Amino acid sequence: MLHGTSLRSRDAVLLVCSIFIGGSQAQYYKPFTAKTKKLFSQDPVPTNGYSLAFDSATVDGTDSVYYHFGALDVGSTYEDPNCSGWGPPYCYRTDQPIWPGTFFRADNMGTYWFGTVGGDTLHFNFAASIGDTSTFYVDAVQRFSFVKSGPDTMSILGYTDSVYTYVIQHTDLAGSPIASELQHDSVIVGKALGLVRFFRVDLFPQVLQPLAMLGNLDPPLGMYRITTAMIEDHQPGDVVQFKTYTGGTLPNGQPFTYHTTTFLSRSDTPDSVFYDVAWESFNITSGANNSGTSIAGYSKNEVYAELPFEKFNGSFNTFTLSSPWSCMPLWILYRNDAPSFGPCPDGNCWVAADTQGPPPSSYGSVLLGLGVTSYFYQDPFTPWDRTILRSEIWCISRRMVWNAGKRSILELLRTTGRPGSSFFPIRRRTIS
User: Fold this and answer.
1) What is the dihedral of CA 124, 125, 129, 135, to 10 degrees?
2) Are strands 361-367 and 349-352 parallel, antiparallel or unpaired?
3) Long-range pairs for 132-136 at CB < 8 Å and ≥24 separation?
4) With left for phi above 0 and alpha for psi between -120 and 50, is residue 404 left, alpha or beta?
5) pLDDT at 340
6) Cα→Cα distances 106→56, 110, 343, 396, 431, Å
7) Distances (CA, A) of 77 to 25, 74, 98, 161, 285
8) Percentage of the chain surpassing pLDDT 70?
9) Exposure b/e, 50-75, CB count within 10 A at least 16 = b
10) Residues 239, 398 contacting (CB under 8 angstroms)
11) Are 304 and 316 a contacting pair, CB within 8 Å?
């Protein structure tokens, strides 16, 4: 535990924003406001999306306190008399710690406390003088400090901002450097953008994971919302294949209809994107083979999801960077609907919902730049031979080989839906 003040949160993730202090005192920028919505990911190799957003804000004496959204506490036994559900009387709060840890708190003089899941406290003096070294964590074997520099001008996601940089020093107690992910990394706070570089707090110091900002809602930068045009973001020559099944009991991989879409051309307007496409479908049971051409259009303004992407909103959501087999790495949003939970109008919690019988089961995912990668819906109501709609996208990898003025394309097909699936060689064709 860090020597000094230790603060604990009772039932929410807390975070406090700093203020700008002028005059003879040290200066620092606001890392957060009540309306902050950001997306972070690992650096230098992004893998998972980590959203930063707040459910509410309060004032506690001279402190400002912000309540960060958390994970749904599905095992809660908390009861709220003003918020009762159907069946179990429990109120399920979204207050379980996520990457920012258990609480953030500040004294509005530039001092911040960040709580880890393990009960430790990180102590940041963002108002330190330029060039000063300030320790923010120490235990029996190691010390983490930072040296403040700035203000400097920096371009972040194409936006130019003034920033203070806090370069991290990770040493043993004798002052010898420790080679770690945070050694010589930095925390960066912008005047307009606030926190743009940080690290995971929840599992610190066992997990030392630098995070860089990938999206910001205000001003809008980077990955802050997902539109249908972003999901269906194709270029001429792209080929997408998927399979669908609608009917009774889920088949054992046989009576599917396979669809192939080839994007022939693309045109953009300020609010939409349009494609000329050639399509083909083949039903493996009936042998029916259909084909044709059409125009597909997608809106640049229709919002599919917005920060915070991972917040529980009636479905469990994750946002990760995926390399779907032979495709390029793309961001994928997974949704697993939870109809058994309903919102409580009295507060930020969820209760057991009356679904009038067994609820339907549905889940799916979208891959930005490729489309709806999978969708599953199963209705348990009569007829008891359950109706199922299932769709999975497949990715075609095209390898270009130039020989004697001809281009040979080897196309391989692999499902992106389930682990353990196999490669299926489709065809080899030569284009003059």
Assistant:
1) -50
2) unpaired
3) 133/169, 136/2
4) left
5) 83
6) 16, 7, 31, 51, 65
7) 48, 9, 20, 46, 50
8) 76
9) bbbbbbebeeeeebbbbbbbbbbbee
10) yes
11) no
In Å, what is the CA distance from 33 to each residue of 12, 17, 63, 195? Answer: 17, 6, 14, 10
CB-CB neighbours of 356 under 10 Å: 8
The pLDDT value given to residue 356: 74
Rounded to whole angstroms, how far apart are CA atoms 229 and 270? 11
Of the candidates 368, 304, 320, 311, the residue with the CA atom closest to the CA atom of residue 52: 311
299 neighbors 286 (Cβ within 8 angstroms): no
Task: Report residue 145 as tokens.
Answer: 């400090």
Regions of the chain where pLDDT drops below 70? 1-26, 246-255, 323-328, 346-347, 375, 377-432
CB 304 within 8 A of CB 226: yes
Report long-range pairs for 191-194 (Cβ below 8 Å, ≥24 apart): 191/29, 191/151, 191/161, 191/162, 191/163, 192/159, 192/161, 192/162, 192/219, 193/156, 193/159, 193/161, 193/219, 193/221, 194/17, 194/29, 194/30, 194/31, 194/32, 194/33, 194/36, 194/38
